Each structure stands twice: as C-alpha cells, then as structure tokens.
C-alpha cells in the first residue's frame, strides 16, 4: 500500500499485514489505557508524557467543534503528520461516517487507527465505511449492542461508546456502556432458538450474536468515550466493565491539562483502588465546563449519528 | 502494586505501550520490586512492550528500561501499525511445527549479551525470541493465538526453578 517507510518489512516474504488478528491485536495492547484527543504536536507530547497509550489527532476537540458549528471534517494531513512525528505511541485520527476517501488518505499517511466518528459531520446518512477494505484498523462508536455488532460486521476492530462528546458530562457514556454490557448479559440467558429473532430485533449479524453469547463479551476491545472529564469518571466506566477510556475535550479544556491527564491515567490503571483514586483527584484545578444533555437540542446530539 | 509481586513464581509483562508501562511502574515502585523478585529467582517473560521493559538498553530516546535481560532493543522497528504482520516462525525448544507469530508495532532485538540464547529469528537475522536463565523475551504475541507452546515453555522454566529450590530445601 501507499507508504512503506519501515526498515523491517522490505525483506518480507511470507508476512501477512492488515489481518484481523493484527488489527484487533493493537486494540488489545491499548486495554487498560487512556487515549487522549490532541490538536497539536505539543499537546501530543504532553499526553505521551502523562502516560497516554495512544493519541487521537484532531483539528479541534469536540467541545470546540460543538461551539464552531458548520461542517467538521478530517484533520489536516499536515497536522496529523506533525503529531505522528512528535510521539512514539500510536496515533489515531477521525474520519466522517461513510467517508471512505478520508480513510484512504489517513491510511496513506500511515495513521495507526482510524475512528469513523459521529463527532465529525457525517458524509453518508445511510452507509458506513466498508472497513474490511483497509489494512489500517478502525474503531467505531455505538450506543447499544446491535450498533456495536453492525460496526464489527463492517470490519471495526475496536468499539467505543459514543457518549455525548464535548459535553464533559459522563451520563451518556454510562448509559451506552450499561446498554452494551447489559445486552451481552441478557444474551447469556437467551435460549438458542430465540437467537435469530433476537438478532433481528438488535439489527445485528446473527453469527456475531452467537459469538458474543458464547464468548460472553464483544469479539473486540470495548472502550468508553464521550464526556469523560475526571479521574472518577474514568474509573467509573472501568468499574462498569469497559476495557479502557478515550478522553476528548476533558483534558485540554481543563485548567491544568498535564496534571489532569496524568491523574486520569493513574485512575484508569488503579480503577479499583479508592485510596489511589482519592489521592489522584486532589488539586487538579478546574475541570472542563459541563453541559446538561437535557438542554441540548436533538440536532445537537452527536450520539444519534450512525445507522 | 509492589506487594503483589512478592512470592510469585513467575511474572509476565505483557504487550501495551512501553512508555506507559515504564512510567506507571516507576511511579508505584514496581521497578525495584520486580528487580528484587527476579534476583531472588522469580521467572519473567516480557512480551513485546514487556520485552522493551525488561531489556538492558534501548536505542534512541526512550524511557529507561529495567535492565533485567542483557539485550538492546529498538522500539517500533517494523514501522507503524499498517506494517504489523503475522508470520510462521521456527522456534528452538518447541516441537517442529513453526509458531504463528503476531507482531504488533513490534520491537526488534538489535544486540544480545553473552548469556542470552536466541530461540527464534526472522529470515533477515533479527532475533525475536530469547531466553536467559529464567527470563524469556518475545517480540511477538503468543497470547493472540491459540498456540500454547511458548506458555508451556515458560512454565517449564519456572518448574526448573522449583526443582532447584526443592533440592536446596532437602539439602
């Protein structure tokens, strides 16, 4: 494919790149970690220094996208490159729902993971990207089990809750986490003969419904995202059973980003240790300002994007 | 936490981001706890990022590794994620059949100390699995496959230790 600047792969003979195991494998390595939204090389370095396991390269953090209105698109490749050059941890970037050409561009840039994201303005209101066509792995948002399995069916190698990005309000992430995990738990007590109808009701691929029932979890890593602003928020989602967290506006819209970023990393690692959670929650300064979701107009709710 | 290391027969430091792992380990006193336990005979297996963590030295600008296995390691040797790959690899000490090796933004071992034995190399000669005493290191991820032969290999390393300590107790 496009760029092959690596030293090792030039001699490759029987090496398979872009396989399902390799795509899902990177997400496995991010488990228990924090992925942070960054808009510059400097922010990326702050995130890496704080212990982020990956960064998400963006033009604007979600709360600024919210404030700016208009059409939100893929990040400028120049900025993506700057961020890739600034850190050694994986770099993710967002594309609009259905915009497979933006995804082709990110893959050509060598981006490590692509987020087909409702935070940007959708490019297609019926179809998502056919993610099987890419060597670059994808993460997608979901609000319930059916949506998660539709995205996995399209080739997503990692799933996250949508939450409500850019609000600093964790309520929607909690709702989506509970809905997905509750859906998985309900599958465990569903008899086999009811699975086809359940798959129909979930609008999910039957094979994946059977697989989730057997494995008692999603076949890919499942992160929390959308509205996480404090170490306690991160630990809450981890205790609910998520595999890791994305923090968007929550870090660089806070008064002391470096301190808050490090605190959220520690809280995600030690999510079950209230003593450490208490210790890292002290003296972080002001969190990002929050928004009451009930005051948002239906058109301002990003989580409704996705089909 | 350090107290959780005490009394372990073996410890696997898994894949992940080595910068994150080293920072958090440092912060909570795990570097010393793991070094102490390894010196006292605990088995250790570093997988991918874990291999970076236990190395003696790293190339380039990188956090300071634990220095428990006498190898020098280069991070992200094969490039970015789209260059991550799987390949079948013969591994010394395992049965004939090649091992399905999954490399995820993997490191490579660029130099090896005298007491370290190479178990597997890529065709171009880069060592990717090594052992020294009770310390095992792999640049690839056996846990992402259903092949348990390297896990069995590691358990055998630990058992060897048990036999020895039993002998000491009996003596």
Tally the helices of chain B: what do you get?
4
Uncertain ranges of chain B: none
Parts with pLDDT < 50 across at least 5 consecutive residues of chain A: 1-11
Largest sheet of chain B: 5 strands, mixed
Largest β-sheet summary of chain A: 8 strands, parallel
Secondary-structure-derived class of chain A: alpha/beta
Distance between the termini of chain B: 34 Å
Oligomer: heterodimer
Strands across the major sheet of chain B, in which order?
1-2-10-9-8
Structural features, described:
The complex is a heterodimer of chains A (307) and B (171). In chain A, 41% of the residues lie in helices and 12% in strands. Chain A has 307 residues and is of the alpha/beta class. In chain A, helix 5 links the parallel strand 4 and strand 5. Chain A is globular, with a radius of gyration of 19 Å. The N terminus of chain A is likely disordered. By secondary structure, chain B is of the alpha/beta class. Chain B has a single domain, classed as 3-Layer(aba) Sandwich (Rossmann fold), CATH 3.40.50. Chain B is 28% helix and 29% strand. In chain B, strands 1-2-10-9-8 form a five-stranded mixed beta sheet. A three-stranded mixed beta sheet of chain B has the order 3-4-7. In chain B, strand 9 and strand 10 form a beta hairpin. The radius of gyration of chain B is 16 Å and the shape is globular. At the A-B interface, strand 1, helix 1 and helix 12 of A face helix 1 and strand 5 of B. Strand 1 of chain A pairs antiparallel with strand 5 of chain B, so a sheet runs across the interface.
Lay out the secondary structure.
The complex is a heterodimer of chains A (307) and B (171).
Chain A: E1 16-17, H1 20-30, E2 34-38, H2 41-50, E3 54-57, H3 62-68, H4 77-86, E4 91-96, H5 100-109, E5 113-117, E6 138-142, H6 145-153, E7 158-161, H7 171-188, H8 195-202, H9 206-215, E8 221-223, H10 231-240, E9 245-247, H11 249-252, H12 257-269, H13 274-280
Chain B: E1 10-13, H1 18-27, H2 30-39, E2 43-47, H3 49-54, E3 55-58, E4 69-74, E5 85-89, E6 99-103, E7 108-112, E8 117-121, E9 127-132, E10 135-138, H4 149-170
Parallel strand pairs in B: 1-2, 2-10, 3-4
Antiparallel strand pairs in B: 4-7, 5-6, 8-9, 9-10
């Amino acid at each position: 494919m496009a760029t092959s600047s690596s030293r090792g792969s030039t001699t490759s003979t029987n090496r398979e790149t872009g396989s399902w195991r390799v795509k899902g494998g990177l997400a496995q390595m991010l488990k228990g970690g924090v992925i942070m939204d960054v808009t510059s090389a400097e922010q990326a370095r702050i995130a890496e220094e704080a212990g982020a396991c990956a960064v998400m390269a963006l033009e604007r953090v979600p709360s600024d996208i919210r404030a700016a209105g208009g059409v939100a698109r893929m990040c400028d490749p120049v900025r993506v490159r700057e961020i890739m050059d600034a850190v050694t941890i994986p770099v993710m970037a967002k594309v609009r729902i259905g915009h497979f050409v933006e995804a082709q561009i990110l893959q050509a840039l060598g981006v490590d993971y692509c987020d087909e994201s409702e935070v940007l303005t959708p490019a297609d209101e019926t179809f998502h990207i056919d993610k099987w066509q890419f060597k670059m792995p994808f993460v997608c948002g979901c609000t319930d089990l059916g949506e998660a399995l539709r995205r996995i069916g399209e080739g997503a190698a990692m799933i996250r809750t949508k939450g409500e990005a850019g609000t600093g309000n964790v309520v929607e992430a909690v709702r989506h986490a509970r809905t997905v995990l509750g859906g998985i738990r309900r599958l465990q007590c569903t008899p086999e003969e009811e699975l086809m109808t359940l798959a129909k009701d979930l609008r999910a691929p039957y094979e994946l419904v059977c697989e989730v029932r057997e494995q008692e979890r999603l076949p890919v890593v499942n992160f929390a995202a959308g509205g996480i602003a404090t170490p306690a928020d991160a630990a809450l989602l981890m205790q609910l059973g998520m595999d890791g967290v994305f923090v968007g506006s929550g870090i660089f819209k806070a008064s002391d980003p470096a301190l808050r970023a490090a605190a959220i990393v520690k809280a995600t690692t030690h999510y079950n240790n209230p003593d450490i959670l208490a210790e890292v929650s002290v003296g972080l300064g002001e969190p990002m300002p929050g928004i009451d979701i009930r005051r948002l107009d239906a058109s301002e709710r990003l989580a409704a994007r996705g089909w | 936490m350090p107290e959780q290391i005490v009394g372990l027969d073996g410890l696997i430091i898994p894949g992940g981001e080595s910068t994150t792992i080293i920072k958090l380990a440092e912060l909570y006193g795990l570097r010393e706890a793991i070094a102490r336990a390894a010196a006292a005979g605990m088995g250790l297996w570093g997988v991918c990022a874990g291999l970076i963590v236990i190395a003696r030295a790293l190339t380039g600008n990188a956090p300071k590794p634990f220095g428990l296995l006498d190898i020098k390691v280069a991070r992200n040797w094969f490039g970015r994620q789209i260059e991550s790959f799987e390949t079948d690899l013969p591994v010394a000490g395992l049965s004939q059949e090649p091992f399905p090796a999954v490399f995820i933004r993997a490191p490579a071992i660029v130099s090896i100390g005298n007491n370290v034995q190479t178990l597997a190399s890529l065709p171009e000669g880069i060592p990717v699995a090594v052992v020294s005493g009770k310390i095992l290191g792999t640049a690839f991820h056996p846990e992402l496959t259903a092949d348990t032969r390297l896990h069995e290999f590691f358990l055998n390393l630990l058992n060897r230790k048990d036999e020895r300590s039993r002998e000491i107790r009996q003596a």
